Amino acid sequence: MNEKNKDVRVRFAPSPTGYLHIGSARTAFFNWLYAAKTGGKFILRIEDTDIARHQEETINLILKSLKWLGLNWDEGPEVSGKYGPYRQSLRVEIYKKYAHKLIEDNKAYRCFCSPDLLKEERKDKADKKNKTVEEKSFKYDRKCLKLSQKNIKDNLDSGKPYAIRFLVPENKTINYKDTVYGDITVNTASIEDFIIIRSNGLPTYNYSVAIDDALMKITHIIRGEDHLSNTPKQILIYNAFNFNVPDFTHLPMILGQDGQKLSKRHGSISIEKYIEEGFVREAILNYLALLGWSYDEKTTIFSTSELIKKFELSSINKKPARFDYNKLLWINGYYIRNMDNSHLKQLLEKQMRNYLASKNIKDLENGVKQLDKKIEKIIPLVKERIKTLKESINLISPFFIKISYSDELATYFKNKKINTIDILNRVYKAISEVSDKFYVKDIEKNLRLISERLNLSFRKVAEVIRIAIWNSTISPPLFETIEILGKELTLKRIKEYIRIIS
Ligand code: GLU
Predict the structure, then answer these.
(1) 223 CB less than 6 Å from ligand 1?
(2) What's the 12 CA to ligand 1 centre distance in angstroms?
(3) Is the separation of the CB atoms in 45 and 76 below 8 Å?
(4) Coil, helix or strand for 80?
(5) Beta-carbon neighbour count of residue 242 at 10 Å?
(6) Please, are residues 262 and 252 in contact by the beta-carbon 8 Å criterion?
(7) 130-186, pLDDT tens digit by residue?
(8) 3-state secondary structure 416-446
(9) Is any ligand 1 atom within 6 A of the Cβ of residue 209?
(10) Taking the model in full, what pTM does it have?
(11) Is 227 in the pocket of ligand 1 (CB under 6 A)?
(12) What value, to the nearest 5°, has the Cα angle with vertex 380 and ends 378 and 386?
């Protein structure tokens, strides 16, 4: 099909089961990219017929993550559109109506068999010893297809529950071409008359998905390869109604480093977790694109607008993708380093405020009001050193939060041959004498003088200062750190450390 001649409509159709999994986020992103590339529409449909009421929250989680990623939808929940509703739980009557049409056309039938009984028969067959796989596999024997009109009427009159089964055409070949997996041929002999509406009135996945994709005029289906084997059944449904069959693109599996399907065992796999861990949107999208797609096998960094230009369904790989946390981390560091400072400031400030709230810290030594101004100054000191926003907490919080010296650092100089108190008194004086403008070069000049006077390497003097003002043997660049801490707070911490070791 020529893409230019038809309006592309793609969809992301999550079943909300708790959070937005990395794999689902990739599916959403590839659909979104394809719509952006072709000027098409990106539709969000929630497949929620299986979920319990109390899981309503999970839908909001998914919407929230999609919005955070910037994957806005043209039609769907909260936006509406011509082909709604966009939640399957609100479309149940539509599925029933179409199923009854199929019954009228002799393409489906009511099945009154008890599900429990069928389950047992299925199990008995599977348990048979010394049989081939084929002999063991259970296919519904079409008992209810043979019911007379009178039987059916009696059953209905007596209120017997029933499911609706699709009548699979016999010995037909289903052919289709998947963009990634190529030509696929399946004979209907291997497909049983599958249930389309359960006895509780709810549709099964293969049926509702096909009805919705057709009614919502979806032109391209882009989804995980776990649905490759469902596609023939869906094509049967399209054919039964003479609906147009969309193009199919199945995305390769995502594996962990150990070659197993990516799961919780491999660490964080939800977008929510990555947000919490301080990953930035641009890095996540960039990395998602690399899971199964590549441009030239060597380029790693792609902005979203570059991806819109370069992305092609035909360059998706069949080979399973490997999820590489360290690569994602590296990409995240790259985006942080290259982010403009005003944007980074917003993100770091938010991160810091969330941290303070989570720890219920209200008293800041350097006033909450100062957070904004100070963080702006702190950024050049930390930008190159962090790979996630969260890592900034350790570097930023000592600028604001009262420090309490660990035992180790309180006794750090005990057996060292330097006169710590003398050095600290000199530092105190040197800092006091810096003019109130508190320029970093004056701070540096005054402090270096101490090491000259004492004929002691500056490294040693710096170590003492660092422990006193930072409660650590490492800190961001010392003079800038002192400048940002401010005169008052620097002096206060020096005094406090003198008190502790005296
Ligand atoms: N609700 C299905 C899932 O989450 C969607 C499958 C599809 O895209 O057809 O796996």
Answers:
(1) yes
(2) 8
(3) yes
(4) strand
(5) 7
(6) no
(7) 666 666 677 899 999 999 999 999 999 999 999 999 999 999 999 999 999 999 999
(8) CCCCHHHHHHHHHHHHHCCCCCCCHHHHHHH
(9) yes
(10) 0.91
(11) yes
(12) 90
